[in-house]
Amino acid sequence: xxxxxxxxxxxxxxxxxxxxxxxxxxxxxxxxxxxxxxxxxxxxxxxxxxxxxxxxxxxxxxxxxxxxxxxxxxxxxxxx
Length: 80
Hints:
With 80 residues, the chain is mainly alpha-helical.
């Protein structure tokens, strides 16, 4: 699971680079994919990476909320 998360983080980092988008476009053109489809795919890759970044948990869990340990001491009534 950790390898998959590391792979997704690497893809997210690479997807932000213009050279990656250009490379995807060239590969798609070589395989005969229409330019409109290539543009759609190159826009979807960073969007999917952004959604993955939102959905994936961080490396550590947040600390738990403190719970009250006992009832507070009762006040004594009576004036001076």
